Amino acid sequence: MSSIIQAKNLRKYYETGKKVVKALDDVSLTIEKGEFVMVVGPSGSGKSTLVNMLGGVDVPDTGEILFEGEPLKRNSGALTKFRRKNVSFVFQFYSLIPTLTAKENIEVAAEMVFKSRKELSQIAKESLEAVGMGDRLNSYPSQLSGGERQRVALARALSKRPKLMIIDEPTGQLDEETGQRIVELIRDQAKQQQTTVLMVTHDLELEKYSERVIKMRSGKLLEE
After folding, report:
1. Which of the residues 23, 42, 74, 129 has an alpha carbon 20 to 30 A from that of 63?
2. Residue whose C-alpha is closest to residue 188's, from 213, 157, 210
3. CB neighbourhood size of 212 (10 A)
4. What are 202-223's pLDDT values in tens digits?
5. DSSP letter string over 105-173?
6. DSSP type of residue 208
7. What pTM did the predictor assign?
């Protein structure tokens, strides 16, 4: 297996009044292509800061990130281009557009990669079918349960055929059983697409679904 991400000596500090908070404190790690990695730790441990940095949403104060061997540039234009080409995000609150159907929500995201209307329609249908939502193409978010909305959000992320998927607390709004089904679905679909997954969670019960667990506290890696 070859690496997709290398992070070297990442540091990120925030000032709150007279206090300096070390969000990341000299963090180094390597993520292999196709890995399913969970990042766990208490609130404020730096886990979301870390994955946002690896996904090109944030930049370190010091340190370097390599993606497929190439350094990530720090200017906003280059990072936007990097995210559109390589990264998909799935969040706790779904972030679906309420005035669009499930299919239309996916088509909007897939437009970053696919251009023809016929191709967009096909990709949207295939993505929804892959997560068991093929019969809800024309449903609006308000007509879907929490678990169904999260499936649509996952289908939207997968529709871009990303190299890297960043998932932040995807089960936070779901009951335990539905949450576990969603994580199983993420694992299985990502493996089919050979997508690398970084998933932030506070739920230690979900560790069994990952290939590797990174534990954090106070901006540092504790163990893997």
Report:
1. 42
2. 210
3. 14
4. 777 778 888 899 999 999 998 6
5. HHHHHHTTT--SHHHHHHHHHHHHHHTT-GGGTT--GGGS-HHHHHHHHHHHHHHT--SEEEEESTTTT
6. G
7. 0.85
Give the tokens for residue 139: 């449903």
* Alpha-carbon span 189 to 98, nearest angstrom: 25
Which stretch of DSSP H or E encloses residue 19?
strand 19-32
d(CA 160, CA 85): 8
8 A C-beta contact, residue 27 and residue 41: no
Rounded CA separation 179/39 (Å): 17
C-alpha to C-alpha distance for 194 and 112, rounded to whole angstroms: 20
Q: What pLDDT is stored for residue 223 in this prediction? A: 64
Distance CA 41, CA 180 (A): 19
Q: What angle do CA 56, 59, 67 make, to 5 degrees?
A: 45
Residue 220: which H helix or E strand, with range? Answer: strand 220-223
Q: Tell me the pLDDT tens digit for each residue of 22-57.
A: 999 999 999 999 999 999 988 889 998 999 999 999
For residue 24, give the nearest of 56, 57, 59 by alpha carbon.
59
